[in-house]
Amino acid sequence: MQVLFNSIKLYKLSDCKSKCAYRCSKAGWHKLCLRACNTCCERCNCVPPGTAGNEDVCPCYAKMTTHGGRHKCP
User: Fold this and answer.
1) Is the pLDDT of residue 7 over 80?
2) Which InterPro entries match (predicted)?
3) From start to end of the chain, where are the E strands?
């Protein structure tokens, strides 16, 4: 189920899993991608469409970084 809040799609945890499963479907490190994507989805309530790119749709997702300063979200 998704809810719109100020035109932003908010996802429940179960939606995060399905959205991240698709987002990471072509990733070389599938389990690592899923773990990072689910963390980002839970924090941002958003996953960009497609298997890569489109991060402009989800600014929180795009801005999240690791302790090393690299992009956290796939």
Assistant:
1) no
2) GASA
3) 2-5, 8-11
